[in-house]
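Thread: Newbie trying to understand structure tokens

Hi all, I'm a second-year student working on a class project, and my supervisor (Dr. K.) asked me to get a predicted structure for one chain before our next meeting. I've only ever worked with sequences, so writing a 3D structure as a token string is new to me. If someone could post the tokens and maybe explain what I'm looking at, I'd be very grateful. Here's the chain:
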Amino acid sequence: MSFGIVQSMIISMKNNSRKKVLSHFDRKDMPLKGLKGDFNELLKRKATPEQLENIRKEIKRENKIDLIKTIIIMIIAILILIVGVKYLIL
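---
Reply by user tm_fold:
Sure, no problem. This is what the structure looks like when written as tokens:
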């Protein structure tokens, strides 16, 4: 048995036994701030069917605008690529 393998095993065991540093995104031990009293109030609120329909329409309109922007950007990128390849070939 070589000592390099034993040394790496000892280092690995030491690293595993150290207390882990709490990550910023680890929320198990972090208290939730601001939701103690307001959370139940948020659950009680109800939206009217008219409000829900307005929200649906607004989301559909935003999605349509985003789709149009994406299509325009893709068309411009493809045209630039085609023109660039044409000049490289000539």
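A couple of things are worth pointing out once you decode it. The CA atoms of residues 81 and 87 lie 10 Å apart. The chain is about 70% helix and 0% strand. Feel free to ask follow-ups in this thread.
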